[in-house]
User: Which sequence fits this backbone?
């Protein structure tokens, strides 16, 4: 009986955290966009946008979700057996969503449109938080994927930081001009 009460309370609290997470992650996403350009401090290059390439937008979306996941981790959600895998899948979903939407709509329009990019960023956060919520509260036990979750997070952190300083000569790393 006591377990059911705890489980029900956790589900309510987790739902609140994920809903608040949409707003907080989106605000972090926006803040990270301007952090380096606004301060000029090189220490922020690994986590902030250094240009207007698609890659840099993927990076700031990932790090916004990463910082919120760290917050949730220290709020005690790490105790949930599905937390690490759920957060890893959520963090991975942001770049995937943005890539699919950005390259799909620009294939038709031939250009980047600022308000569509902002909406895409917001929707990527909504999708990631929904994925996180569904996996973390799933009755399935994903604990066997904890090492995979940590590995994905580490690979993403390493990739975003490394390619900030040494970007390959690929289109995703080229700065795009946006039109209002």
Assistant:
């Amino acid at each position: 009986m006591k377990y059911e009460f705890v489980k029900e309370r956790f589900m309510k609290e987790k739902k609140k955290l994920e809903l608040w997470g949409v707003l907080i992650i989106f605000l972090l996403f926006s803040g990270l966009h301007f952090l380096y350009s606004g301060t000029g401090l090189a220490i922020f290059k690994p986590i902030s946008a250094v240009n207007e390439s698609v890659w840099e937008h993927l990076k700031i979306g990932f790090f916004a979700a990463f910082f919120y996941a760290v917050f949730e981790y220290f709020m005690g959600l790490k105790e949930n057996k599905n937390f690490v895998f759920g957060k890893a899948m959520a963090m991975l979903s942001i770049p995937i969503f943005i890539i699919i939407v950005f390259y799909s709509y620009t294939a038709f329009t031939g250009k980047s449109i600022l308000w569509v990019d902002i909406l895409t960023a917001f929707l990527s956060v909504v999708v990631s938080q929904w994925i996180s919520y569904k996996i973390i509260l799933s009755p399935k036990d994903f604990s066997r994927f904890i090492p995979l979750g940590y590995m994905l997070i580490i690979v993403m952190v390493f990739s975003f930081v490394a390619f900030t300083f040494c970007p390959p000569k690929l289109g995703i790393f080229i700065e795009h001009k946006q039109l209002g």
Notes: The beta strands are 112-113, 178-179. DSSP finds five helices and two strands in the chain. Residues 2-39 form the longest helix (38 residues).
